[in-house]
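queue> pop job 88
queue> type: inverse folding (structure -> sequence)
queue> payload:
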């Protein structure tokens, strides 16, 4: 059983290269939801995040999730 806030490390393929990313379970869950909503795989979504990042992939993924949730809430409020 995975605990809340627990860091999970996963291997992913980004642009044909294997790498790993370590983020909390909750972020993985939201990334899965975003990927499903967009109709893409987690690897594809992380590849999109990877292209524009200026920091490590884990941090970039967390910021992406945060921006996504803020944008979603702003649309809901309007």
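queue> result:
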């Amino acid at each position: 059983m995975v605990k809340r806030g627990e860091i999970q490390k996963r291997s992913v393929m980004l642009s044909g290269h294997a790498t790993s990313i370590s983020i909390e379970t909750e972020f993985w869950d939201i990334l899965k939801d975003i990927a499903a909503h967009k109709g893409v795989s987690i690897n594809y979504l992380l590849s999109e995040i990877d292209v524009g990042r200026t920091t490590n992939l884990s941090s970039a993924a967390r910021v992406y999730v945060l921006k996504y949730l803020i944008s979603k809430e702003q649309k809901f409020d309007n």
